[in-house]
Amino acid sequence: MDQEGWRYFLALCLAAQDEKTLSELLDLLLTPEEKVSLEMRCLVIKALLEQKKPQRQISEDLKVSIAKITRGSNELKRISPRLKEYLRKHLLGFASRDVPRK
Q1: Which of 77, 50, 47, 52 is nearest to 62 (CA)?
Q2: Which helix (H) or strand (E) is 74 found in, with range?
C-alpha cells in the first residue's frame, strides 16, 4: 500500500480554510466513535505535556484506561523535538476558553 488515501486525507485537511469546513469534512469521514477517540487522544497528550498529574490521575480524570495513557506517554517519547514543540505550542498555548467551538 502506498498510502495514497492517507495523502488525500491530509491534503483535504490542509485545504480546509476554516474550522467549519474542516469540521464538516471530519463529520463526513469519521464516525462519532472515531471522533470521540481522537478527542480523548488529544486530551491525553495535552495532560501528559502539562506534567501536572500522575498518569493514574489522568486516567481517572479522563475516564480512559491506564494503557491509553501509557501508550500516549510512549508515543511522546518517540516523536521529534519539533513535533513536541508544536504540540506544546498548540495544545498548551491557549486556554480552554480559546478553543474554537462549533
Answers
A1: 47
A2: helix 66-78
Q: How far apart are CA 100 and CA 3, in angstroms?
A: 30
Of 52, 58, 36, 47, give the one whose Cα is nearest residue 88: 47
C-alpha cell at 38: 481522537
**Cβ proximity of 92 and 49 under 8 Å:** yes
- Tens-binned pLDDT, residue by residue, of the chain (102 aa): 579 999 999 999 999 999 999 999 999 999 999 999 999 999 999 999 999 999 999 999 999 999 999 999 999 999 999 999 999 999 998 755 455 555
Cα atoms in the 13 Å half-sphere on the side-chain side of 85: 3
Contact 44, 62 (CB under 8 A): yes
